[in-house]
Design a protein that fits this description.
The chain has 162 residues and is α+β, with helices and mostly antiparallel strands. It has five helices and eight strands, in the order H-E-E-E-E-H-E-E-H-H-E-H-E. InterPro entries: Pyridox_Oxase_N, Split_barrel_FMN-bd.
Length: 162
């Protein structure tokens, strides 16, 4: 499968991403988050409380990295994943209005869950305690499955972003 097609499969099928941040004194932290993705340029959206560890880290040091993975049917050759680096920030109020429905449609695909758990836009804007954050992806890699099948060495291939 073409690397871009594989990346789209991972983006569409993964339900969570692991986001790695660093404290101001350079200690690492990773949070597992539900997310939505936006194409061209590739961005990830996630919601979080402003006082969560990763939100505080992003405010101080916006450079992040992370990973997503899918297991398929559980067979070894069905497992796939992506790793990324990027810059993270809170959405502006205009962006929250623009992406609110897209974000919750991705996180809560059924009408009942959306009706119960969707926060109103007002709960995602200052001075509220929750925000929607955006990771602007600058680089992304996939597992190089072609060479792994040959020699069982775990390598990555970078996927060109549009």
């Amino acid at each position: 499968m073409d690397p871009v097609d594989r990346l789209h499969r991972v983006l569409a099928d993964a339900k969570y991403l692991s986001l790695s941040t660093v404290t101001p004194d350079r200690r690492p932290w990773t949070a597992v988050l539900q997310y939505a993705w936006l194409p061209d340029p590739l961005r990830f959206l996630f919601g979080s409380a402003t006082q969560s560890r990763h939100s505080r880290h992003v405010a101080a040091r916006p450079t992040v990295s992370g990973a997503l993975f899918v297991t398929g049917d559980g067979g070894l050759t069905e497992v796939d994943g992506a790793q990324f680096t990027g810059t993270c920030r809170e959405l502006t109020p205009d962006e929250v209005h623009a992406h609110h429905a897209t974000f919750y449609d991705a996180l809560l695909p059924d009408d009942t869950s959306r009706a119960e758990y969707t926060l109103p836009v007002s709960a995602l804007l200052p001075p509220a305690e929750h925000r929607i954050y955006q990771v602007s992806v600058d680089r992304v890699w996939l597992v190089d499955t072609s060479t792994w099948l040959e020699d069982r060495i775990d390598r990555r291939i970078e996927v060109d972003l549009p």
